[in-house]
Batch of 4 targets.
Target 1
Amino acid sequence: MHSFRVGLVTATAVLLLCTPASAEPLKPLRFFEGRTESQGIIRLFMKKPYKSRSFGRGVIEPDGSLLLVQRVEDEGKPPRERRWRIRQIGAGHYAGTMSEAIGPVTIDDVGGSYRFRYRMKGNFAVEQWLVPLPGGLAARNSLKVRKFGMTVGTSDGTIRKILAR
């Protein structure tokens, strides 16, 4: 199970359409441009839950794709780096890579929330949801990890945009 825990809190995850009540919708990849922070609790089958945090820096590349580099800090473990590269491939559809995923990451807009799907080493299937919170500066992040159709891990937390001061 150790092989999939690295992707459980993916602030961590990469795509979000935040719509402040009185503003035009932001471009989806722009939420992760600049600095973000995520916090959450990871629960693995037959293990004690632990806290996870990540600090991200995102850049929109000249081709329009997002490059997000995160410093991930899981309680009791040394920090590590996670990299995402995501691009829009159609209306409400995104694809890319994440350094801890095996194969592609797909992201779909489902009624204003974002569903991520990818696989981790050990044939673990991950489904992650980002749900924008009121105000447009944060999102609820929930994740399930399955193996052979059974849930073997979950994570719940928040991701917030850190505004320049």
Target 2
Amino acid sequence: MDDKLAMLRAVPLFVGLDDGELEAVGGLCDEVDMPAGRELITEGTFGNEFFLILSGDVRISRNGATLRVLGPGDFLGEIALVDHGRRSATATCATDCRLLVLGHREFHSLLDAQPDIRVHVLEALARRVRQLAPDQDL
């Protein structure tokens, strides 16, 4: 689990978590194997899961055009953990993949049970918003 926790620690949403908090998040994750060709996320649908790629490659596409290919250590769907919003792209396993999967409902149960984690996640989201729109904080 140490390697998986190290990979989770690199996710911007989880950067401020201490070891115990990160272990709590990791404990909610399911490790799953997905075959090449399996669609993980469909553009335009509502998101419920976060995925961390342990092995394999995932193709990200929008309107059928490939945007990029993600590999081990990369992640997708972290914003869906927070807002349960529509997916902006489709993600398909380009190869057989091993993934850590964290569901929206489980994540929110953890945030309710551990308010310190909620604070860290909100701070991480605020940092991300500032990076995306630095001139908006007037």
Target 3
Amino acid sequence: MLSLLRLFKTFARQPGCKSLQAFDTVVTHWRVWPGDIDAFGHMTNARHQTLMDLARVGFLLRCKLFKGVLRRRWKVPVGLVNLHFRKALKPFERCEIHRRIVHWDERWFYVQQDFYRGGDAARPAATGYVKTLFAGRQGAVPTA
């Protein structure tokens, strides 16, 4: 339920945001809620990936790609996720995800997503690397 509310929040925030190009860094803002916490008192590994997915939707919206993806009935599956954790995100803490495309080839986009704790832009609390593509009815859509 919390993820669905966050998805609605992602859609609601976009109309007032400045449009960006596909290779700009897109920043999304979040808060760690009690439902995001594991038995050890910090945000779960799985919730990091959920927020990364929501940041991907925000990226598509900000770059004006979302409507085209829907119109063409493309999917945006993830082929690989690799997360490096440095500091735990605690309950009620604010965080930002800075998302940018770092590389691409004929098929895949390689994306870096950094989690910054509220106000600490010096070093990310976690960094995620995602390999993703656009897939249509005929398979993978070329990155060109």
Target 4
Amino acid sequence: MKRITIVLAALMLTGLVFAQGAAPLSKGEKEMNFGLGFDSGLPAYWGMEWAVHNDVTVGGNVAINLAGFDYMILLARGDYHWNRIINIPPEWDFYAGVSLGGDIGFSGYSSGLHFDAHVGGRWFWSDKWGLNLEVGGGTGFGASLGVTMKM
């Protein structure tokens, strides 16, 4: 019985290591993200990400409150994309990462630093376009919904 357990565990581990999930971006590719945040006012963001590895992207975001223009957020970010490890199809993207940056306040809005962790997912309806949902502050807000364009 112990040998069967060891063999089954080895087969499952081999399946994980050689999983056939595809990376959302290959090294050297980039994508643009834009959308709205869920926060006070009407926060909007725009960002770019570059794949520095098949599973890792780095980039930056700019966000502004369209309902008062009282702040702007500038962030650098890094994400790990879990597609190959959890073996999901290429039209889906699941990622987690961290962001670092700051608020620039206008009209009495206070400035400050951001260091946040975030989790997100994308669904691509074509080779270039997808929907993006993220929680945890990667765009400067607690959550955001937007569009992704592969470039």
